[in-house]
Predict the 3D structure of the following.
Amino acid sequence: QVRMVESGGGLAQAGGSLRLSCEASGRIPRIANMAWFRQAPGKERELVALIGDGTRLNYADSVEGRFTISRDKTKNTVYLQMNSLKPEDTGVYYCRQYGPGGDYWGQGIQGTVSS
């Protein structure tokens, strides 16, 4: 099994930045996609950003141009750099690793943006 652990959340001011990290440990699949999801209060969980096992990148329209997803395969870690933050970015952020080897989620980490 694989364990996913997020870190780097917290509080930021509008217009500021946060950097999230998610490290996978355990039996790491050879092929996997990595993604960040978030869930705001009263809303469904939504995809924020995706980085494929190759070069594929995908962002939600609401974060395009502000967020950047990246990964370091040698460290089994995926990052989400969040710039120009808005209050509506507030929510619980989850990392996900999925592919032929399985589907694994982190526990989530709170990100809060104040006005």
Summary: Residues 5 and 22 are 5 Å apart (CA to CA). The radius of gyration is 13 Å. DSSP finds no helices and eleven strands in the chain. The mean pLDDT is 94.
